[in-house]
Amino acid sequence: MKLRITNKTLRSGFSLLEIIIAIAIIAILVGVVGYRSGSAIQRGQASRILQVVKTCEKAAATHYADTGLYPHEYMVTAAAADRQLSSTQTYDGWQGPYTERPFADEDTNPFGETSVYSNLQESSWISGFDLDGDGTADLTGNGCMLFFTDIPQEVVQSIDRALDGGIPGDWFTSGRVVWQESANRTLIYVYK
């Protein structure tokens, strides 16, 4: 039996062009998957912060109903007197704790600091909240707002869409969410 070798038999591997095309397709797929997983991560981070907002809304409302005072709450490292939602207090009417635990980076803000302020007009940070988007502050004075640091713009925009979707005006100054890019802080109206 004689073996016959043809051109077709000798060409059994991949050409350089075919390998380059396969690598390019894989790179495109990795890029698409990476981009989509980045969006999923940001949605998860925004969702975590939105959960903190909901928890603080309930806690601040209950605290106010019990005491007639707007609470403030700082990170876990703050003194107990500065953690009015999570640490035992001695003032009249306090029946908490109103949250399971103090704020900690790993469960409230994956980017930086989290605090609740009991004044909607904190010195020069903000003049209040423009809830209807007409350019004037509708909520000022006593009340509760969450203060977050270092949240990326894309995540803040996602939070803003969830809380303020459809409010006229700039997304970063109108509604419950105020994003101050120069100071890298996000303020969210919680309760009044």
Would you give an account of this structure?
With 192 residues, the protein is α+β, with helices and mostly antiparallel strands. Helices cover 35% and strands 13% of the residues. It contains three helices and four strands; from the N terminus they run ααββαββ. Strands 1-2-4-3 form a four-stranded antiparallel β-sheet. A hairpin with a 4-residue loop joins β3 and β4 (185-191). The protein is elongated and about 105 Å long. The mean pLDDT is 83.
Based on secondary structure, the structural category is alpha+beta
The number of helical runs is: 3
Q: Main beta sheet, described?
A: 4 strands, antiparallel
**Portion of residues within helices:** 25-40%
How many beta-strand elements?
4
Overall body shape: elongated
Spatial ordering of strands, largest sheet: 1-2-4-3
- The topology string of helices and strands comes to HHEEHEE
Distance between the termini: 95 Å
Instruction: Give the averaged pLDDT, no decimals.
Output: 83
Percent of residues in beta strands? 5-15%
Task: Identify low-pLDDT runs.
Answer: none
Radius of gyration, in Å, reads 26 Å
In short:
By secondary structure, this protein is α+β, with helices and mostly antiparallel strands. Helix content is 35%, strand content 13%.
What topology does this entry show?
Blueprint: H1 7-10, H2 16-67, E1 114-119, E2 142-149, H3 153-164, E3 177-180, E4 185-191
Antiparallel strand pairs: 1-2, 2-4, 3-4
Helix pairs in contact: 2-3
Tags for this entry?
single chain; 192 residues; alpha+beta; 3 helices; 35% helix; 13% strand
